[in-house]
Inverse folding.
């Protein structure tokens, strides 16, 4: 733009200067006249073409310098904003619960970005303020609870809403006499609430695109931290519910097992007495009652052991015993009912440290399974190695499908062929047996072929001496 030279005494501008002549060069920054440089003199016609040219050149230099200052200021502002954002994000990183997230966000944003802010959670159409930080002096707006039905469609569309775009009643309710913006917050794909940024009128240019992008970025970090906290709280809730239901189940199991076992043992005792004293015609029925009662006693035993293993392990009452004798006793007890078990053991003692009560439970499980899942002879062999002793129980029964071998030691794990053939069972015995063997410092494994039989092997550390 060319400078304007004037010496016309009717020129209002000249008169206001009280000068005889003047020359005015506009300062144009980004296409807009922002300032002007004026030279004036008390005599008329003091300036010529050359002065105009010179002033024009000076004016373009000054305009350039001013533009540079603006760019520099903008850069500095951006850098400060970026640093503030970084600090907000850093503070959010240390939060865990939603309570902490919203509070830390409100406090750091008001401190770092110098805008008041309130975070609202929405339940249906009502928005409840979860955290707020006002700037001094205290302002109205940012109510504790507000009807958000008007805002909902905007929030659902993910729109940032400027206070200036709200109807007056809504604006007053949310922002008082101040200005600001509302940014939606989502969690799990749904609207969780919104964050309201607010400042005193004129402090910020809320229409500024960069500022809006900045507020959105802040809100996205808040969203991220909120989602993580909501996830964390849900997991905690689930874990609590799970542990409560587990405790309840363990208590129930232990109580059932104890209260069942007493009466069942009495029934089994009377059955034995009746079997000895009653006429043979009744024996078949009595045998059935007896064996079924025994099964229930067994189930109750498993249930007690299961409850104990679930309730955080159990203690062992150990002593060093000869494994040949421990296993031999169990075999003898089983053979009393059906003489199908052959027992082999080395000539020398096999000292192991074990809790006989608990270990008998394991042996009984293996022997009863071998008898239950096969018809023929069962071989039980105790052997002694350098560091370990082992017990192998082999039968030539139904076996276990190879792909299901892993699951028979899991809780309630049963092989498909046992189910298919209708052999009764609970899938608890081997699980409990594995736990008991493991607390003894040993291991249990199985080798099996479907239709050909199975060998269950327990390995235990050898003890120094008996
Ligand atoms: P249960 O026999 O009461 O079902 P267990 O925990 O003792 O429970 O055994 C788990 C599963 O392992 C059984 O259901 C059965 O499928 C399989 N199993 C155990 N012992 C044998 C065996 N000797 N022969 C074939 N399958 C067996």
């Amino acid at each position: 733009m060319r400078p304007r030279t004037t010496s016309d005494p009717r020129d209002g501008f000249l008169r206001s200067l009280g000068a005889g002549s003047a020359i005015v060069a506009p300062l144009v920054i980004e296409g807009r006249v922002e300032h002007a440089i004026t030279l004036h003199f008390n005599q008329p016609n003091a300036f010529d073409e050359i002065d105009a040219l010179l002033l024009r050149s000076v004016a373009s230099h000054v305009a350039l310098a001013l533009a540079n200052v603006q760019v520099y200021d903008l850069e500095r502002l951006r850098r400060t904003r970026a640093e503030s954002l970084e600090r907000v994000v850093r503070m959010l990183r240390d939060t865990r619960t939603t309570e902490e997230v919203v509070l830390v966000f409100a406090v750091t944003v008001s401190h770092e970005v110098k805008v008041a802010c309130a975070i609202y959670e929405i339940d249906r159409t009502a928005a409840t303020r979860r955290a707020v930080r006002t700037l001094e002096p205290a302002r109205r707006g940012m109510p504790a609870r507000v009807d958000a039905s008007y805002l909902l469609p905007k929030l659902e569309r993910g729109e940032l809403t400027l206070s200036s775009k709200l109807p007056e009643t809504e604006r007053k309710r949310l922002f008082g006499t101040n200005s600001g913006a509302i940014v939606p917050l989502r969690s799990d794909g749904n609207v969780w609430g919104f964050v309201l940024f607010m400042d005193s009128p004129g402090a910020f240019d809320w229409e500024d695109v960069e500022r809006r992008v900045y507020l959105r970025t802040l809100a996205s970090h808040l969203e991220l931290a909120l989602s993580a906290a909501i996830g964390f709280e849900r997991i905690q809730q689930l874990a609590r519910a799970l542990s409560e239901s587990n405790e309840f189940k363990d208590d129930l199991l232990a109580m059932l097992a104890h209260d069942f076992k007493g009466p069942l043992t009495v029934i089994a005792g009377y059955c034995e007495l009746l079997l000895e004293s009653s006429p043979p015609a009744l024996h078949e029925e009595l045998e059935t009652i007896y064996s079924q009662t025994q099964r229930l006693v067994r189930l109750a035993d498993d249930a007690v052991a299961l409850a104990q293993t679930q309730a955080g392990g159990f203690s062992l009452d150990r002593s060093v015993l000869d494994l040949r004798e421990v296993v031999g006793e169990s075999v003898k007890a089983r053979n009393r009912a059906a003489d199908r078990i052959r027992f082999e053991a080395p000539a020398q003692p096999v000292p192991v440290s074990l809790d006989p009560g608990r270990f008998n439970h394991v042996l009984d499980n293996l022997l009863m399974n071998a008898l239950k899942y096969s018809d023929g002879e069962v071989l039980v062999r105790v052997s002694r190695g350098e560091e370990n002793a082992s017990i192998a129980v082999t039968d030539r029964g139904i076996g276990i499908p190879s792909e299901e071998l892993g699951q028979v030691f899991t809780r309630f794990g049963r092989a498909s062929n046992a189910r298919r053939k209708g052999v009764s069972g609970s899938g608890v015995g081997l699980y409990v047996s594995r736990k008991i063997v493991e607390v003894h410092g040993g291991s249990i494994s199985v080798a099996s072929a479907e239709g050909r039989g199975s060998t269950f092997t327990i390995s235990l550390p050898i003890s120094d001496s008996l």
Remarks:
- Residues 365, 369-370, 373, 395, 397-400, 408, 413-415, 418, 425-431, 454 surround adenosine-5'-diphosphate (CB under 6 Å).
- The chain has a mean pLDDT of 89.
